[in-house]
Amino acid sequence: MLSRPRGLFFWLVVIILLFLIATAPVATAHTILAVWRSIVTLFTGLKIFISVLSARP
Predict the structure, then answer these.
(1) Could you tell me the CA-to-CA distances from 38 to 9, 15, 34, 41, 48 in Å, in that order?
(2) What would the DSSP string read from start to end of 1-57?
């Protein structure tokens, strides 16, 4: 079954799928890091906001 020659479309689809499988972990890592940095920025901003509010007489 695998010894039969395949068409150009088959190989194009295989290459695209392999590329997506190879780059998916990188994209996932970038997404996780972006969410983490956003959460840290949010809580840093809240800390500054609360400290400004508590410093008022």
Answers:
(1) 41, 34, 6, 5, 15
(2) -TTS---HHHHHHHHHHHHHHHHHHHHHHHHHHHHHHHHHHHHHHHHHHHHHHHH--
Report the predicted TM-score, pTM, of the whole model to 2 decimal places.
0.60
Query: DSSP letter at 57?
Result: -
Q: For residue range 1-19, what is the model confidence (pLDDT) as tens digits?
A: 566 777 888 899 999 999 9
Alpha carbon distances (Å) from 24 to 4, 11, 12, 28, 29: 30, 20, 18, 6, 9
